[in-house]
C-alpha cells in the first residue's frame, strides 16, 4: 500500500494530525488540507474501501452512515440551509488521489458547475 493509499488510515489512527470536525463509531470527518470551497470537509469510513462503488456493494449501511455524517457536517459548518455538495471521486480520471473512499462536503459559497476540465 502506498503512502497516499495509507493516508486516511493514519489520520484515523491519529498518527497524522487533522482538524477533526465530527466523529462517529464508524466515520471520521476532517478538514481538507487543500480546500476547494470556503467549507471543505472529508468524510471517511473508518473501514477501508477503495471507492464508493466498492463500499456500496459491500456495506450499504456504512455508505448511509457516511452520508448521514456528511449531513451532520453541513449542519455543523452552517451550510445546510444555503446548500452544499457531496462528491465522491471514483478513479484517477475523476480526480481520486487517495484510494480510501471519502466524501467531499463542499459549501459556504456559490459553487460552480462541474464536469470537463477546461484549460
Characterization of the model:
With 119 residues, this protein is an alpha+beta fold. It has one domain (3-107): HIT family, subunit A. Helix content is 29%, strand content 21%. Helix 2 packs across helix 3. The protein is globular, with a radius of gyration of 14 Å. Residues 7-116 form the HIT domain. It holds the Pfam family HIT.
Key words describing this protein structure:
119 residues, HIT family, subunit A, five-stranded antiparallel sheet, alpha+beta
- CA gyration radius, whole angstroms: 14 Å
Number of helices: 3
Average of per-residue pLDDT values: 92
Order of helices and strands: HEEEHHEE
Shape: globular
Per the CATH scheme, the topology name is HIT family, subunit A
Level-2 CATH architecture: 2-Layer Sandwich
Distance between the termini: 32 Å
Structural class: alpha+beta
Largest sheet: 5 strands, antiparallel
> For this structure, what is the CATH class?
Alpha Beta
Helix content: 25-40%
Indicate how many domains the architecture comprises.
Answer: 1
Strand order of the largest sheet: 1-2-3-5-4
What is the total tally of β strands?
5
Pfam family, one: HIT
Motif (Histidine triad motif): 100-104
Protein name: Histidine triad (HIT) family protein
Organism: Amycolatopsis marina
Amino acid at each position: 500500500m502506498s503512502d497516499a493509499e495509507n493516508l486516511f488510515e493514519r489520520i484515523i489512527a491519529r498518527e497524522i494530525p487533522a482538524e477533526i470536525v465530527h466523529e462517529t463509531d464508524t466515520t471520521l470527518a476532517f478538514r481538507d488540507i487543500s480546500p476547494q470551497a470556503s467549507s471543505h470537509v472529508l468524510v471517511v469510513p473508518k473501514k477501508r474501501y477503495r471507492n464508493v462503488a466498492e463500499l456500496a456493494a459491500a456495506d450499504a449501511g456504512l455508505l448511509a452512515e457516511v452520508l448521514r455524517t456528511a449531513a451532520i457536517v453541513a449542519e455543523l459548518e452552517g451550510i445546510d440551509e444555503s446548500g452544499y455538495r457531496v462528491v465522491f471521486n471514483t478513479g484517477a480520471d475523476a480526480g481520486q488521489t487517495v484510494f480510501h473512499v471519502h466524501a467531499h462536503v463542499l459549501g459556504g459559497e456559490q459553487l460552480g458547475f462541474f464536469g470537463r476540465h477546461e484549460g
